Amino acid sequence: MIRLARDFATEEALRCSFETHFIPSLITKITYSQTRSARESVCSDGHADLVWAGFHATTAKRDVFHKSCAALQDSAASVIVRHLNSLQVATTERIASETWLSVGYVARHLNHLAEADAVVRCDAGWKLNQRFSIPRCEIVAFEFKLFAWKRAIVQASRYRAFANRVYVVMPLSSVHRAVAHLEFFQAANVGLIGHSSEGGFQFFLRPRKHRPDSQSSHLRAIAWLMSQP
What we know:
Blueprint: H1 11-21, E1 34-39, E2 50-55, H2 62-72, H3 75-87, E3 89-90, H4 92-99, H5 103-115, E4 119-122, E5 125-128, E6 137-144, H6 149-158, E7 165-171, H7 176-179, H8 182-188, E8 191-195, E9 201-205, H9 215-226
Parallel strand pairs: 6-7, 7-8
Antiparallel strand pairs: 1-2, 2-6, 3-5, 4-5, 8-9
Helix pairs in contact: 2-9, 3-9, 4-5
């Protein structure tokens, strides 16, 4: 027998209502110069139903990052850029040995990144283009569920790879099932929001802001979000 939440018949209806009524001030006190949102992330295991990001003030270097967005959405390319960001300069062979990628694979991606002006060749190997910088931002991911709060925690936890905070969103008519087990959300540092069909929001738990578990996945997410229309 199919159960229906009184507020919403489907998770898609829940997500659409949430998107319609959502305002950034619900989840952050910071006023960002630019915000982006997109559905079905491709930045980690599992696809987040909705991802929102707030970006700090635009800089002149942002144009170079925009040019690199397509290349940076590749997992290997993002790993290479993050590695160069920490090393400052490195040879193709060193990058390959320290990232467990083949030399040929790294070389191909470095050439693609060079075409996008993200990296440049130098006497000692490769380094990031001095005009390239990774935008500073906050990323928040959302998982929508009508009833299955345990599964929602598992899925939302995966988004910690690229997001600074993650939330599970449930209808207000059924969220009490999850509220009764709030300790599981606290242990996973996953927030919990109840949302009504009238557009109301109730926060039962706000997660701690954290550094994403994977800096390369975080970079992929930034590139993916900034590629959205």
